[in-house]
Amino acid sequence: MKRPITAGGEAMPAAATREQIAEALLALENQVHELMLISDIAANAWDNIGPPQKIEGDAIYYRCTKRERDCFDFLLNDVAVRAQRLRDSFYAGSRGEIRT
């Protein structure tokens, strides 16, 4: 059986089997757990900042140290990066590719 030809003249890759897809998706377990842990850490960091100090209309003011702010910025960025990597790995896994 001939493989379909793409517009560029290259052969299409063979479709991944269910076993390959399952293996690739199961390989995401560590990424899922790491994202869960870092999101818990970020939630705890937010809780440590405490309740709002002042509310004026739509503006809400919190009081924290510069170090707390820097740590929280780091945590939020780390959660976002890990979530993006997990999303990319998931879609690759749906094609049978394993990414770590």
Give the topology:
Blueprint: H1 18-26, H2 29-49, E1 54-56, E2 59-61, H3 66-93
Helix pairs in contact: 1-3, 2-3
Model description:
The protein is mostly helical and 100 residues long. The protein is 58% helix and 6% strand. The protein contains three helices and two strands, in the order ααββα. It has helices at 18-26, 29-49, 66-93, and strands at residues 54-56, 59-61. The protein has a two-stranded antiparallel sheet with strand order 1-2. The longest helix is centred in the last third of the chain and has 28 residues, at 66-93. It is elongated, with a radius of gyration of 22 Å. The model has no long low-confidence stretch (mean pLDDT 89).
Features:
mainly alpha; 100 residues; single chain; 3 helices; 2 strands; two-stranded antiparallel ribbon
Quick description:
The chain is mainly alpha-helical and 100 residues long. The chain contains three helices and two strands; from the N terminus they run H-H-E-E-H.
